[in-house]
Amino acid sequence: MLILQRKKEQSLSIGDNITITILETGNDWVKLAIDAPREVPILRTELKEAASFNEEAVSVPLTESSIFKINNLIKKCENNGDT
Amino acid sequence: MEVNTQYFGTVSCAEEDLIHFPEGLYGFQQYKSYIPLAFQEDSDALICLQSVEEYGISFIVMNPFLLDPDYSPILSADDKTMLDATQNEDSISYYVISVIHDSMEDSTVNLKCPIAVNAQTRMARQVILDNPLYQIRHKISSFGKKGG
Q1: Is A46 exposed, middle or buried (0-12, 13-18, 19+ CB in 10 A)?
Q2: Quick one: closest CA in B to A50, which residue?
Q3: Domain that holds residue A39
Q4: Nearest-CA distance from A80 to chain B in Å?
Q5: Domain architecture of chain B: domains with CATH
Q6: Looking at the DSSP assignment, which residues form a beta bridge with residue B93?
Q7: What does DSSP say about strands B115-118 and B58-62: parallel, antiparallel, or unpaired?
Q8: ipTM (interface pTM)
């Protein structure tokens, strides 16, 4: 992995067609401007991860035994909350 | 209406029983309406969110506050506007999507992206929380352990 340090208003290029410029920075955030061809998908990474989690969720069916186990775990949690 | 479901056979339900996701869920933007079906009557601990549009699409969701009483989701201003909850959030309920395998060690819940539902309007959105403590793949087995 390449790690670069850039200042505000500086930019970097990826290949011939993509330029990323640092617009603003705050305490725990940066604002970026991304110039890329329309056909290049740009997604917040957590959106991609959320989508892949959802795809997994849909493809793993619940079984009788997993329902039993998960209900036991929920009961355990409820008991912990009571004490 | 009658809905074919993955876990409950054919279920008849009314329009007001449905939950609507105007934007869909992440990766499943095309499916907007779901019927919540509880695995145990009168309990929201374990619910199947069954798409009414597609038999093969259903999510197993859990009440996150039963797993972790300290769970504290904070909605963004945009989430509140979309859910019609800018004035008060009393009618917002939260559910977390789970992937439950036979082995609890492999099973996870997505604490980072809960489903927020306005119980009054039946509108819902899968939100993304800023809190870095909440993970997309949080091990279910980590719950229910404290105090033995």
Answers
A1: middle
A2: B26
A3: 11-50+57-82
A4: 7
A5: 2-142 (2.30.290.10)
A6: B117
A7: unpaired
A8: 0.93
SS3 A70: helix
Structure tokens, B14:
């009314």
For residues B87 and B143, the answer to whether their CB atoms sit within 8 Å is no
pLDDT of B55 reads: 94
The answer to whether B109 and B140 are in contact (CB under 8 A) is: yes
Question: What is the pTM for the complete model shown?
Answer: 0.86
Model pLDDT for residues B5-29, shown as the tens digit of each residue: 999 999 999 999 999 999 999 999 9
- A47/chain B closest Cα distance in angstroms: 7
> In this structure, is residue A1 part of a structural domain?
no
Q: Three-class SS of residue B87?
A: coil
Angle, CA of A28, A44 and B140, to the nearest 5°: 85
